[in-house]
Structures are given as C-alpha cells and as structure tokens.
UniProtKB/TrEMBL annotation, chain B:
SUPFAM superfamilies: 2Fe-2S ferredoxin-like, 4Fe-4S ferredoxins, ADC-like, Formate dehydrogenase/DMSO reductase, domains 1-3. This is NADH-quinone oxidoreductase. One of its GO terms (molecular function) is 4 iron, 4 sulfur cluster binding. Its cofactor is [4Fe-4S] cluster; [2Fe-2S] cluster. It comes from Methyloversatilis universalis (strain ATCC BAA-1314 / DSM 25237 / JCM 13912 / CCUG 52030 / FAM5). InterPro entries: 2Fe-2S_ferredoxin-like_sf (IPR036010), 2Fe-2S_ferredoxin-type (IPR001041), Asp_de-COase-like_dom_sf (IPR009010), MoPterin_dinucl-bd_dom (IPR006657), Mopterin_OxRdtase (IPR006656), Mopterin_OxRdtase_4Fe-4S_dom (IPR006963), NADH_UbQ_OxRdtase_75kDa_su_CS (IPR000283), NADH_UbQ_OxRdtase_ferredoxin (IPR054351).
Length: 160, 774
C-alpha cells in the first residue's frame, strides 16, 4: 500500500511546523498525524512514515506518538467512528449503558467495524465534558452530549 | 558548589548535580535500571527512590537535583519500602525464566531482586506476553522480559544518533519495537545489549553458548580501527565466546562498535588455518612447522641469492602488532635490503620522507570532545571510525561545529555546520577554495596554488569556523590517504591549517598504522612499487592484497608472477597465489602492542591459546630470522621485542616521533576528469580479515552485496534511470553489479565499494568507470 501526503496535507503540516521554532519540526508531529489521518481515513505505517519523512524525524518517533494516543487510528476504521466515553464520571451517569445500546444497535463490540464498513465502535477516554455524560464523539471531532437512547437512535439514523 | 549529606556522609558537589551523581561520588550504590551516566535522565523505572529530608514522599535519585543542605537517606525504612514496592511492580510482568535467560547471572533485575524482591509473588493473575521482534542479525529479543527503562531508545537517540527503537503504545501495552519492518542497523547497536538491564536484548551470536560465570574475562585491544578501543574478551574452554567493552573514558568511553564486538566469530570459524601448508605440484599439503619454516626460509634465501633482496618484500596489514612489524622489518633488512610496508590501500607516496614525523591524529582522542570546530576531509566517518564519529556527535550536541568535505553525502547522524560533497577529483579544488576563503578572512594573500580558487558560501562558513576562537582541527580521512593526489591534498590541508591555526590530523586506517611507521615497517619499496616492479618473493603478514590493495587486480597479478609467496595469516587465504601458508595468531592468540592514532601504546596478552598448530607471528618471524642466520632475532619475549622496537617507550609515543607537517610538497591542482568517477569505500565489515569472516556481521545491511550506486541525476544523464543491473568497466577489468539510486553519491560519480571479491576486478580505487545497462 503506498501513501503520499497530498498537496493540501503538506501545506497544512507546513503551517503547523511554522508555529514552532526552527529545527523543532518534531513538535508538529501530532498535528501532522492528524492531518494524514484526515487525508487517509486511518494511519497506515506508510502514512506515519510519510509524516515522519515530511518532518524529517525518525519514523519510529512518529510511530510512538501515533500508537500512544487513542484518537489516532492505526487500524482501519469505518466511515463513522463512534467513541463512547466509559471513564468513571460517564460510567456513573450511564456511559456504560450508552455503549451497550450502541453495541446492540450496530451488532458489534468495541474496536469492531460493521460489515458494511459504515461504523466503528471505540471505547474512549475522558473527553472533558463529564457534566454532559454520557458523552460520545464522532470521528474525533463532533462531540455529542447527554447521549440517551433516543439521542443515540437519532445520531445513528443521521449518520446512515 | 552545593553541600549534601547522604547516609550521614557530607560532601560538596557542583551545581546541577543530581542525588545519584553525589551518591556515585561517595561510592554509594543506589539501585537503578533506567539511569545511565552517559544517557539522558528518564526517571521511569523508579527504582532509585530515596528519602529526602522534608520531602513529602520518596524522590528518584537520578532526577532530583541537589539543593544546598539536602539530607538524603538511601537505605532508610521509607526508601527501602519504596524500592521494594517498585521491585514488586517490576516483577509483576517479568517472567520467572532466569534459568533459560541469557542474561541470567549478569542481570541487574536479577541482582536487585535478590536484595529488594519478595520471596514469593502476591500477583496471581496472568502475566503479559509480548511478541519478540526481529531486530536483525546481531540483537536477539525476549520482549516479555522488558521493563521499559528505555535505555536502548535513548542510546539510539543520543549516542548512535538515530532513533531506531522506540516505545510504541501506552501503559500496559507499551512495547519496545522498531518501525514496521525495520531492523536495528546502527554500527553501534551492540551497545544496546550491554545497556539492557534485563534479558530483553541479548547478543544473537552469543545466545545460549555460555553462562557468564563460566567465562573468564581478559583484557585486550581492538584491532579493527585506529582508535585502540579497550576490550574485555570472555573466554570459555580456550574459545572466545564474547567481546565486551572495557571502559576507558579517554578512548572508547564505555562503548565499542559492532565490528569490535562481533568479529570474534571469525576466530572460531571454518576458515581458520590450523596447520602449515605447502603447495606442491598445484596441490596443497599439510606439513609440520619445521618443514614449512625450512621451506619458507630456503625460498626466501634462494630468491635473495638469485635476484637480490631488492626483489623481496613483505606486505603487512596495518593491524599487525608492533612486535610482528618490527621483526618483519628486521627480517627484510637482514636479507640485505628487502622492502616492507603496511599501506596497501595507498596509491600516492609523495609524502614519504617529507613529513616531520609519523602521521597521527594531531591530538589526544579525548581532546576531540573539546573541539570548538572540526573539519573532516574525505572520510566515511561513521563506518571507518564508528566511535570517533560518536565522540564528534556528542561534541556536536554540545555545540562543536563539525563540517565535512568529502566524496559521500551519507548522513553522519549529527548536526553538521556545513557539508560539501564533491567528486574525488574535485577535492583539491574545494580544499583550495577553503584555503582561499581562510586567506581572505585573515586578510593575507592566498598561496599560489589557491590564489585563483573559487570560494563557495560553504567554504567561507567552514573557513570562518576554523578561524574562530577555541580548539579546532582538520582531520584527513581514508579517502584522502587513498587518493591519487594524497600528498598534494595534504599540502593544501596543511596550508589551510596554517592559515586558520587549526590542528591537522590523520584518521589513521588500521589499529597499528602509527606503530608500523614508527618501527620502520614502511621502508624500501612501497606496495605500489612492489606490485608494479619485479617482485620475486613476497611475505604477506595478515594482509589480503586481493581485497586490500589499492589495485587488487594488479596486486594479484604481481603475486602470481612472484617465485614465492609466503602467507602468514590466521585464515586460509591466498590459495591461488601463495605457495606456503603459515598459520599465525590473530590478536586474541598472541601478545602484542598497538599504537593508536593518538600515539597511545597499548600492549596486550594472548587471551586464548593458539588454535590448532597456530603460532604467534612474532615467534614465527623470530624462527625465520634465526634459520636465515640473520642477526637481531634474539628475543625471549614479545615485551623485549616491543621495548627494542619502541626504544623502551611505554604508555605514549614520544611526541617528537609524531608529526603531520610536510615540507617541500606541492599543493594538488584539480584534475579535469571526463566520465563517471569511482568513489570507493571499504565497507565497515569488509575492512579487515576478521570482520570479513564473521557470519553475523556478514548478515547485516552494511554487508549487503556491493552495487553500483549512482545519484538520480547522474543516472538520468547517463541513460541509466531505469537500469536494474549494470556492467561496470574500468581500464583494468569489469564486473556486473546491481544499480542502486543513491543521492548521497556526488554528481558524475559512481560508488563501487572495495573490499569485495565482486568488485576487485575493477582494479584502482579511483579513476573513471564505464557503466552500461545489461
């Protein structure tokens, strides 16, 4: 599988690099990986290597970051990645039940993707909105609060 | 200075010291895993927790800076409870497989578990298992044993200069690994084995072959490069089982290169010559020493009588010992004017007799770390001098401005101030440009040879760095020494040194190239003259001219023409041109002495008994001398030979013997060359007889089958952009090689490594090559 950063991605990464002092391009690795993931859907080893090459850092240095944070996907994911928070505050306020309900509706478990390639379900870490529990985040960007069964139904319908 | 009290003992330490530094100065041991004096502080193993007065909780000694009046207890109840707690956590996932672990007996975790571990585990659950990784032919992994101290990762980042290993994933899922599909290819990778405090990274060639307590440890000195790295050779049943570094801060610090570490495999290999052999009627016969020596002595005598000693020569490898070379020189002199030389790879001998002494580094190795600026001219630095490269890398991290002028743009894995990469024929022009730039900055007239040189921005930058205050040096590498204009390049570099005030130094080729010159093992005809002339008898001492000569094809021709060729080698070599093979000891089986590039005299003893009927070469030469009834061979021990050879000098060569100043040598003028020029390097594991025969080193990427390497631009210009395999032709011969696109090769050059039988037919290390697709 080959991968190369497209022009838009390269420009976006260069914008991030410019935020840091010269010679500190490694500081832009998180942004670089995010941009590569947006371009490709998930971070293949080739994508990680492409980011590392673009930043002129060792590929392993980018790999460390990509595998450390759970919002980077180093395995293929579906069109919509549903991440349900199950950390303690969410769990106490129905996060676990929310997750169970999504599992039941999609017929998949955590870290699984529906057969049609539409949904991937992930167990998430604290999203910083404990007051809004249960919290769900879609594709790392769209944060949904107070996810009751009804709201989950609506969300999944909307994403279909 | 700060005052600190540790376990009731008071001392003063410099500002910025950590509690660990202070404890080390007192000789107190604080248990630790991730801390290493040469690596950055990670403080992730938490084993070094100590009690600090008025601190609310135990603090890691390795990462806690000393404050004035600090009181530390390393073995108080609080400290020991914390350390025991950490140990319990470390052991939770560590397998209890010490009996089958190669690290058993020399494992820091095992040792500390005796002191801090509980007698049984409270942990009943399943332990975690981590898949092993393929890190290449040198390092074996058992990743389940890893305690995530990240010493190997930091070694890569900080010492080797390239982060090949990293810690992927998070928390309980953390694993040390390389990037997908990569191996660890650093020429210093073996040090990770030493650094690993557990059995996660162990030596692949040594695996399961001995236990640490069965091994006896003996000191010796590395024969593989001119640094003179101090080694500990570990021996079992008279066989070298493993080689480890012996710490010497002024030479190799606590590291050794993989070449030093793994080439011992050749010592026990199949290719060892264990009995003297003589060729009769085209058949090799094993004979006893008496017969072989009589044969060798009589053929030397016969050739000398028939053709005169001027037709007798000895070629020694630059890693032959002082004793061997001195007796070899005695032998040649005794015959009435035979020649001896060690500089097989050299092709320009214009400096002979014109230097103020023996070419050397120009400074102590330790002083390389203190340089403010350095210019390295014509060196494959990382591969030729792995540890000197490491030293410069550390210096560069501290701000030394390291510049390079060379024939390869290979990454040195360090921050360089400026790099100029040109074709070999352009080295003179670039050096002249540097001389001109330096003269301009100084405001003096440039010497005639450089007066019309063009000055690039990079040249100006380099010249300025060599003029600015502080210690600075110009080092000439193997490419310059092997260059067809070696003397002229030296003259230019000397002008540059004079104008800038930098010290001129040589990165010598072999472990004993300085020693060879000092003991007179470079007298008479030089190797080129020997091969070009009518050489009738030749003694090869460790040397392998079919790979090591400046023109291997011509060398083999000459040897085949000779009446007699006597090979003194630990290996079966030269079977097609020799007529007598004498098995002599490699460095592990003889006492001897090397003089390193800094003039350091290091003697060593044999670490094992000679294999089979092998004899130390100095003894063989002594017998040959006596049989030929030559004077000057009455020695009882190698120490006597050494003392006579070095006029009793010990420790250091007297300064007056060393010198890099040439007088009366003309500066080189750039030569216009048409066509593709050859760039030749001796790959790191093709550099000497031992390394060439070590199977593990032969499996590394550095030992990949040689190819013709060419830059993309040059390939397009030459119509080779899509070629896969090419026929490379020189004036002397041709060979067929794979073509590799490599943009570190300068324009209109093709890099074809020497030191391989495949490329030997090409002859000269320099000159032009014709490359066409097949």
């Amino acid at each position: 599988m080959t991968f190369s950063l497209n022009e838009a991605s390269r420009a976006a990464i260069d914008r991030e690099v410019a935020k840091y002092p010269e010679g500190q391009a490694i500081s832009a690795v998180m942004a670089g990986l995010r941009i590569a993931q947006e371009q490709n859907g998930w971070l293949t080893p080739e994508a990680i290597e492409a980011v590392a090459t673009h930043l002129n850092i060792p590929p392993m240095a980018a790999m460390e970051v990509a595998t450390f944070y759970n919002m980077y996907d180093v395995k293929p994911v579906g069109r919509w990645k549903i991440t349900v928070c199950t950390n303690l505050p969410c769990a106490l306020s129905g996060g676990e039940q929310a997750a169970e309900y999504v599992k039941e509706k999609l017929g998949i478990g955590f870290n699984e993707t529906t057969a049609d390639g539409r949904f991937t379900l992930k167990e998430g870490e604290c999203m910083g909105v404990c007051g809004d529990a249960p919290a769900i985040i879609v594709n790392n960007t769209r944060l949904c609060s107070w996810m009751s069964r009804e709201k989950i139904d609506a969300l999944l319908d909307e994403l279909k | 200075m700060l005052e600190i009290e540790i376990d009731g003992q008071k001392l003063e330490v410099p500002d910025g010291s950590t509690v660990m530094d202070a404890a080390n100065r007192l000789g107190l041991h604080i248990p630790h895993f991730c801390y290493h004096k040469k690596l950055s502080i990670a403080a992730n193993c938490r084993m070094c927790l100590v009690q600090v007065e008025r601190a609310p909780k135990p603090l890691p000694a390795c990462a806690t800076p000393v404050t004035n009046g600090m009181k530390v207890q390393t073995h108080s109840e609080q400290a020991v409870t914390a350390q025991k707690g950490v140990m319990e956590f470390l052991l939770i996932n560590h397998p209890l497989d010490c009996p089958i672990c190669d690290q058993g007996g020399e494992c820091q975790l095992q040792d500390l578990a005796v002191g801090y571990g509980a007698s049984s585990s409270r942990y009943q659950e399943e332990k975690r298992v981590v898949m092993n990784k393929n890190l290449g032919p040198l390092i074996s992994t058992d990743m389940t044993r890893c305690i995530h101290c990240t010493r190997c990762v930091r070694f890569g980042q900080e010492i080797a200069g390239v982060m090949e290993l990293g810690m992927a994933n998070r928390g309980e899922h953390s694993e040390i690994m390389t990037f997908v599909g990569h191996t660890v290819d650093s020429e210093l990778s073996g040090n990770m084995i030493d650094l690993c405090p557990v059995g996660a990274l162990t030596s692949k060639p040594f695996r399961y072959s001995a236990r640490t307590w069965e091994l006896s440890r003996r000191k010796t000195v590395s024969p593989h490069d001119s640094l003179g790295s101090n080694l500990i050779v570990q021996v079992k049943h008279d066989e070298v089982k493993r080689v480890l570094p012996l710490e010497n801060e002024d030479v190799n610090e606590c590291w050794i290169s993989d070449r030093d570490r793994f080439s011992y495999e050749a010592l026990n290999g199949e290719e060892r010559l264990t009995k003297p052999m003589i060729k009769q009627n085209g058949q090799w016969l094993e004979v006893d020493w008496q017969t072989a020596l009589e044969y060798a002595a009589s053929s030397l005598r016969r050739v000398t009588d028939e053709h005169g000693a001027g037709k007798v020569g000895m070629l020694a490898a630059p890693y032959a010992t002082v004793e061997e070379l001195y007796l070899g020189a005695q032998l040649m002199r005794g015959l009435g004017g035979g020649s001896i030389d060690t500089r097989l790879r050299q092709s320009d001998f214009g400096l002979d007799g014109k230097l103020s002494g023996t070419p050397w580094l120009g400074m102590k190795i330790a002083d390389v770390s203190k340089l403010n600026a350095a210019l390295v001219v014509g060196s494959f630095l990382r591969k030729d001098h792995p540890l000197l490269a490491q030293r410069l890398r550390q210096a560069a991290r501290r701000g030394t401005r390291v510049s390079a002028l060379g024939v390869s743009g290979e990454d040195w894995l360090m921050t360089t101030h400026a790099r100029v990469t040109v074709a070999p024929s352009q080295l003179a022009a670039e050096l002249a440009g540097l001389v001109k730039a330096a003269a301009d900055i100084r405001g003096v007239a440039a010497p005639a040879a450089a007066a019309s040189a063009s000055v690039s921005d990079a040249a100006r930058r380099i010249a300025q760095s060599l003029i600015d205050d502080g210690a600075r040096a110009i080092f000439l590498g193997a490419v310059v020494q092997q260059h067809a204009q070696a003397a002229g390049l030296h003259a230019l570099a000397q002008e540059l040194a004079r104008l800038t005030g930098a010290t001129l130094g040589y990165l010598g080729e072999g472990a004993n190239s300085v020693g060879a010159a000092v003991v007179g093992a470079q007298t008479g005809l030089n190797p080129q003259q020997m091969f070009a002339g009518d050489l009738r008898a030749c003694v090869l001492l460790h040397a392998e001219p079919e790979l090591d000569a400046a023109n291997p094809a011509a060398a083999v021709e000459a040897l085949k023409r000779a009446d007699t060729v006597i090979v003194m080698s630990p290996f079966k070599t030269g079977l097609d041109y020799a007529d007598c093979l004498l098995p002599v000891s490699p460095f592990t089986e003889t006492s001897g002495t090397f003089v390193s590039i800094e003039g350091r005299i290091q003697s060593f003893h044999a670490v094992v008994r000679p294999k089979g009927e092998t004899r130390p070469a100095w003894k063989v030469l002594r017998v040959l001398g006596s049989m030929l009834e030559l004077g000057g061979f009455r020695f009882d021990s190698s120490e006597q030979v050494r003392d006579e050879a070095l006029s009793g000098a010990t420790g250091w060569l007297p300064e007056y013997k060393l010198g890099n100043t040439a007088s009366d040598v003309a500066c080189a003028t750039p030569a216009a060359v048409e066509g593709l020029q050859r760039v030749a390097d001796f790959p790191i594991y093709r550099n000497d007889a031992l390394a060439r025969r070590a199977p593990a080193l032969a499996a590394t990427r550095d030992s990949a089958v040689p190819s013709a390497r060419i830059s993309t631009g040059t390939a397009q210009a030459a119509g080779l952009a899509t070629a896969k395999r090419v026929r490379v032709r020189s004036a002397a011969g041709a060979c067929e090689l794979d073509l590799t696109l490599d943009d570190t090769v300068p324009a209109s050059c093709v890099r074809v490594s020497a030191g391989w039988p495949q490329t030997a037919p090409l002859g000269a290390l320099s000159g032009t090559l014709n490359v066409e697709a097949v």
